[in-house]
Amino acid sequence: MSPFAGVQFASPEVIQHAPALMIAAPLTAACVAALSPSARWAWFSSLGGALFALWMALCLAADVAQSGVVSYAVGGFAPPLGIELRVDDLGVFFSLLVSILGVATSLASASLLRLELPERDHALMQAGFMLALTGLLGLTATGDAFNAFVFLEVSSIGTYALVAMGASRDRRALTAAFQYLIMGTIGATFFVIGVGLLYSVTGTLNMTDMAEKLSASSSDRAAIAGLVLITVGLALKAAMFPLHAWLPGAYSAGPSVVVAFLAGTATKVSVYLLIRFLMDVAGGLEGAGEGLLNWLIAPMAGIAAVVASVQAVFQTETRRILAFSSIAQIGYVLLGVTSGSVAGLTAALFLLFAHAMIKTVIFLCLGAIGHRGAQLETLAGAGREAPWTITALAIAMLGLAGAPFTAGFLAKWRLLGALADGGRIWAVVAIAVSSLTALVYCARILETMVFRTRRSSASGVSEASPAALAAIWFLAASSVWYGLDASALYDLARQAAASAMGASS
Amino acid sequence: MTLALALTPYVYGLGFFMMAAGLLIALTSRHLIKRLIGLGVFQTSAGVFYILLSKVSGGTAAIRLEADSPAARSLASRLDAAYIATHGVDGVVYSNPLPHVLILTAIVVGAATLAVGLSIIVRIRETYGTVDFEELAALEAKALRDGREDEA
Amino acid sequence: MTRLLAAPEAELVFAALLLTLLAGLVLALLAARSVLTCILLMSVFSLTMALWLMVMDAPDVAFTEASVGAGVSTMILLGAALSSTDVIPSVRPGRFWFPAVACLAAFIGMALALSDLPVFGDPGSPPSSYVGRLYLEHTPHDIGAPNVVTAVLASYRGFDTLGETSVILAAGVGVLLLLGGSLNSRDPVSEDVSLRISAGSPVLSVAARLLIPIICLYAFYVLAHGEFGAGGGFQAGVILAAALILHALVFGVRETMRALPVGVVRSCAALGVLGYASIGFIAILHGGRFLDYDALLSPVFEAGLPSSHLAGGHHHWGQRLGILGIETGVMLAVASTMTAIFYAFAGRVSRSDEAGAA
User: Which of A73, A127, A168, A71 is nearest to A367 (CA)?
Assistant: First the structure.
């Protein structure tokens, strides 16, 4: 039973346009932010756009709970001629994730930007941020393969520049952003070539139509080549091992608010597209989707979980530790996705949601206390300067480590259970080894911040602003809440998983 | 049709070769600007593949003509009547417009990528004084070591 | 029969030959050791590509490739390359083999699909016989415009184009963030002699004064003509930006920036996208779906227009108005973003020249 069943967030006239308005709202906000005379107005506009998108995502969630699948023909042209927005339980799960994190990041953005960038850049930063939100929300809603490419680029092009703006804190942001641009564009181009191969076989771009045509087609080789290219492209975007080289640089040098948003959403939405293509679109091809999942993605995910965790231990910079931890987490999630059972996918989605919130909290905290040093050592004693922020950060770190009574623990526990039930002992071992390694770096970060005293007086750390604290504590408190009572989020994840697996069988 | 059959692997092969070559430049060149150019070739070649799918033998650009206009009649004179009847739309054979629309989009996306990438390169040159990949990597490795020593 | 099919087959052979030339250019690019050579090769590649696209019956794409690929891209590449080293050192073998093997694997992987790909020029292939053909059949009835590419771009797949316009805005935002720092002040470029072809040459200035209005007029023609022939908002936007760039080259960037400050340009880019999205909102307010141009005009108003309704309830006046509206938004966004990008690069070039002179 979905927690949204029977709830009505708006009048039916508004709800019927929710898929389009959810995407158009942040786009409008981006334009208004670019037009804004001051940083303050740009912030209001971005907050407004994110809130409106969240409202529409909630409307959509209620609508999907009631009617199963929501299909919206943009421009009034029915698919396959027109572009279809198609939102099911899986899509709405990711719409909610992206829009919640969008609101939280946007709430904290004004004070975080003030700490890192000159005032004249704020309006354009907000505009770029809203464009990224537009692209990611578009990806969660679209039912058209080429439209997905367009939104992939909407979400990326501005982001490359936003990451490069971290150069005011760490000049390595420039080279990291360039690497990110090259890898991101290669990923998107692989994706578009793959879509082209699928188009050459099916003659259509609508994903549902594509799946139908594929099951009737005999041109398996072109379709499989297309799926492989799409998988490689999305693996680049999702920073799946061994295509993750761009991520540590981008996460460690980018502006905190940008990284906080990206860490929670960008790689996650790529995982969503991967599920969409390999389970939905490939559903028509006997065994192709499962083959790719089992023989390409699963082994890489297992290696990622172990190797990235070990690499994280050997990093000395705070943000790089967290970046490698993100690569490992994508590994866990993909191990769940490839488990082939509803329980495994449910646990993977639950973990993905919990981890997205946790990582966003951590990066928001690091930015909100005005921490400019790269090395972990420079954070020594921060807990005394900024107790409220560091408490939230500590809660999030406990969640990341998988301590009991946090959402992170519950998610990992269920994932291990599902994998063990499915007989994937090697995956269980990989996650267990990786989690134990994660304890080492999580403990190190916690120890440095909370228990150690700082050596010099100029740490430059201060308590976060009220708006940033509100955003941070909202996310941190929800992650604790999901650790104690997971039923609402778990139900959402289970329905999302069921809708994805149902389509593939 | 035999000629078209013989050309098929050749044209697609060339398209794939251009993609691979562009990708190679984007991944290996030492000059950052050349990397971006390679990326542009990679993106454009993906477009070549789409456009190859759109060509219809004997077709014309997808701008609708009146069936009895002089232009339509001169096009029809080159083709077999049965061919037009099967594959034409209202008496004229057109190439497929959909890939054209998609690639128009992709070209603009490519230009946008290039603009952002070049801006980053300009900033890199101003900050590091070089746009050579190897020199940048060496500078970064040095900065990482220094950072560890300074901050520790 | 063979004689009748000769013309189409010759067309396919010509296309294959041009494609060979393109592949040769890529090979040359692979071997090129100078950045300037690379940029020129890229420019030639784009122009040849435009020619190939004409042979492949894609005039709209050819127009865009010629203006965006060969024109704008070359210009900003040259702008960025001006003050960097020209020689490209050779790659270390250790850094070459792994990517080379990966590219080879990608090539082989795609080549394996060859046997399943449609025959070159086959009218019965899935892409040409299914949705592509449906667009050709439905456009006169649904949209009422002869250029099917414009109909698909602006109406059937108008949502894609909205996303694409957002990509342009994102690029403009990104470039201004990265390079625009020095442009916001009152007197942005102190002395930009480096970018003036000739200071005060009367021939150039008279020619430019004559040409710029004509180029602008041509841009609007390309915009309005998009429904009937090759053209549309993107191409028009690039042409409009070309007029401004010509102005800057002849009269100096400072002069152009005084006439059209960077703040105005940035606002225009945002307004272009906003205008596009508003057409979607108006359609919703009139009871249609997002970007449904059929709902743009109120029925009362439409009734007064000649032959507005056709069988099937489609509204050609609304469609035409919608297409023209969004194409105008696209033109505004493209022209402003291109101008902003030019300002950003030009401002940097003159600044680094000053630094070099000092």
Answer: A168
- Confidence at residue B150, expressed as pLDDT on a 0 to 100 scale: 60
Rounded Cα–Cα distance for residues A103 and A319 (Å): 23
Q: Which residue from A minimizes the CA distance to C167?
A: A154
Interface of A with B in 362-391 (CB under 8 A): 373-375, 377-378
pLDDT score at A374: 75
| Prediction ipTM score | 0.95
Domain that holds residue C172: 148-358
Residues in chain A within 8 Å Cβ distance of C181: 120-121
Which residues on chain C are in Cβ contact (under 8 Å) with B45? 26
Residues of chain A predicted below pLDDT 50: 504-505
Put simply, whether C110 touches B (Cβ < 8 Å) is: yes
Amino acid identity, position A78: A
Q: Which of C3, C5, C85 to mutate to test the interface with B (most CBs of B within 10 A)?
A: C5
Rounded Cα gap, residues B21 and C106, in angstroms: 11
Q: Looking at the structure, do residues B15 and B40 belong to the same domain, yes or no? A: yes
Q: Is residue B88 domain-shared with residue B104, that is, in the same domain? A: no
pLDDT tens-digit map of A140-181: 999 999 999 999 999 999 899 999 999 988 889 999 999 999
Question: Which residue's entry shows tokens 């920073």?
Answer: A239
pLDDT at C184: 53
C126 in any annotated domain: no
Q: Could you say which of B95, B111, B143 is where a domain stops? A: B95
**Are B116 and A161 a contacting pair at CB < 8 A?**
yes
Same domain, C52 and C175: no
C168 with C291, same domain: the answer is yes
Cα separation, C275 vs C169, in Å, equals: 13
Please give the radius of gyration of chain B, using alpha carbons only, rounded to the nearest integer: 24
Write out C223-279 in H/E/C secondary structure.
HHHCCCCCCCHHHHHHHHHHHHHHHHHHHCHHHHHHHCCHHHHHHHHHHHHHHHHHH
Residue C75: DSSP 8-state: H
Which of A416-430, A451-465, C278-292, C330-344 shows the lowest per-residue confidence on average (mean pLDDT)?
A: A451-465
Who among C35, C119, C334 is closest to B8 (CB)? Answer: C119
Q: Is there a single domain that holds both residue C171 and residue C258?
A: yes
* Nearest alpha carbon to residue A449 among A404, A385, A399: A385
Mind telling me how many Å the CA of C117 is from chain A's nearest CA?
A: 7
Shared-domain flag, residues C258 and C166: yes
Q: What is the pLDDT of residue A455?
A: 62
Q: Which residues of A touch C182 (CB under 8 A)?
A: none
- Could you report the per-residue pLDDT of B2-54, keeping only the tens digit for each? 888 899 999 999 999 999 999 999 999 999 999 999 999 999 999 999 999 99
Q: Which of B4, B45, B94 is closest, CB to CB, to C120? A: B4
- Same domain for B91 and B110, yes or no, is no
Q: Which residue of B46, B123, B136 is in closest CB contact with A193?
A: B46
Please report the pLDDT score of residue A126 as a whole number: 96
What domain range is B70 assigned to? 63-95
The answer to whether residue A290 neighbours chain B at the CB level (below 8 Å) is no
B102 and B87 inside one domain: no
A contact chains, 3+ CB pairs < 8 A: B, C
CA–CA separation, A229 and B49 (whole Å) = 14
> Would you call C109 and A229 a contact, using CB atoms and an 8 Å cutoff?
yes
Give how many domains chain C has, as a whole number. 2
Residue C102 belongs to some domain of the structure: no
Q: In this structure, is residue C39 part of a structural domain?
A: yes
* Residue C342 belongs to some domain of the structure: yes
- Same domain membership, residue C255 and residue C335: yes
**CB-nearest partner of B117 from A153, A178, A375:** A178
